[in-house]
Amino acid sequence: MSDSVFKIECGPLSSVVVEMIGSAANVLVVDWNNLQNYRRGGTVRHLGGFYKQSPAVFRPGAGDWYVIVNSTGRTRASVSVRG
Fold this sequence. Notes:
Elements: E1 2-10, E2 15-22, E3 25-30, H1 32-40, E4 47-51, E5 56-58, E6 63-71, E7 75-82
Antiparallel strand pairs: 1-6, 2-5, 2-7, 3-4, 3-6
């Protein structure tokens, strides 16, 4: 499995758009504490899940967030914040 982690900053009305090319992937949006839990293999509170198609769109709220794209195949991902 391969993980890509993207740090983003969102405003209160921002949307996070994750575009993926390649295989399906788990896409998780987490805060700093849950990113650390993920890295340790612990329980993670997140937005998202398993996506077979792109794009995945989230509205996490204002603050600093981390987008984790976890795939078993060759997946290229890009993350943008809109709004």
